Amino acid sequence: MKKNSQRVGFTLVELLVVIAIMAILAALLLPTLSKAKHQAQGIKCLSNMRQLTTAWITYAGAYGDGLVTNVVGYPFQGQSSVDWASGWEDWSNPDDPDNTNNLNLESPLGQLWPFSRSLGIYKCPSDPSPLIRSVSMNPRMNGGDWPNAPIAEFTNPNKLSAIVNPAPVNAFVFIDERCDSINDGFFVVEMDFTNDMASLGNIPANYHNGCGAISFADGHAEIHRWRDPRTEPPFDSHKMQGGALTPNDQDVAWIQQHCSALINQ
Asked: Taking the model in full, what pTM does it have?
């Protein structure tokens, strides 16, 4: 008696049904996976900020309460510089050796290196550029002079204990700067220009769904949402962004309030 043959494999219709189901599942899962990836990168970025700020605080403890230096404008004449982080990055110039030079973050050029010893904490994991650093420092944290935020006019503490106005919980230390804005480690804040004369010096990063990472002198870090679209001008790959007039920009006002204060205020 002849046995009935068993069917092997799938019909074309069955294969198409399986493929359609897989496509639907992928469409449903991809946004969730993307959101989870962004959340993970945000958590990592905050961890980097906390570690870098801990190194900054530890430096002060090791140097008699003195804050690490924050040089502005290096290097216009090719001079060397010892700073919290040295070098002059320029994403618009792929031949700039400082873009990928780890030595600018390590000792002796990088003053925080003995207290951090991790290249990864100097860069947001969401930064799309090959630059080694995405972080800049409050210009009025033992920073060099700046015409529109002069140290004769605004608080510029050189000791940890001198950070009182704004208070440590409100005084920002590090901020993630967009890769098409960053160069030195000095984040320009135009303190003299407020309200209808408000001006954006450097551009804060918005790598986390319109938000950027920022740390404070008490050691905590947070993801801050930028609310005015002018704070984040259109991104132009490999083209450096300059300062811009942004009247009554609430983000500029927030940065100014958390940067420094008038000495006689």
From this structure: 0.85
Question: Cα–Cα distance between 251 and 203 in angstroms, integer?
Answer: 11
User: Which tokens belong to 145?
Assistant: 């002079």
Rg value, the chain, Cα? 24
DSSP letters spanning the chain: -PPPPPP-S--HHHHHHHHHHHHHHHHHHHHHHHHHHHHHHHHHHHHHHHHHHHHHHHHHHHTTTBPPPB--STTSSS----BSS-----TT-TT-GGGG-GGGTSTTTBTTGGGT--GGGGS-TT--S--S--EEE-TTSSBPP-TTS-TTTB---SBGGG--SS-TTT-EEEEEB-TTT--SSB----TT--GGG-EE-SPBP-TTTSEEEEEETTS-EEEEE---GGGSPPP-TT-----EE-TT-HHHHHHHHTT--BTT-
In tens, the pLDDT along 72-118 reads 875 554 445 789 999 999 999 989 999 999 999 999 999 999 999 99
Phi-psi category of residue 131: left, alpha or beta, with phi > 0 → left and psi -120 to 50 → alpha: beta
- Residue 166: is the preceding peptide bond cis (ω within 30°)? yes
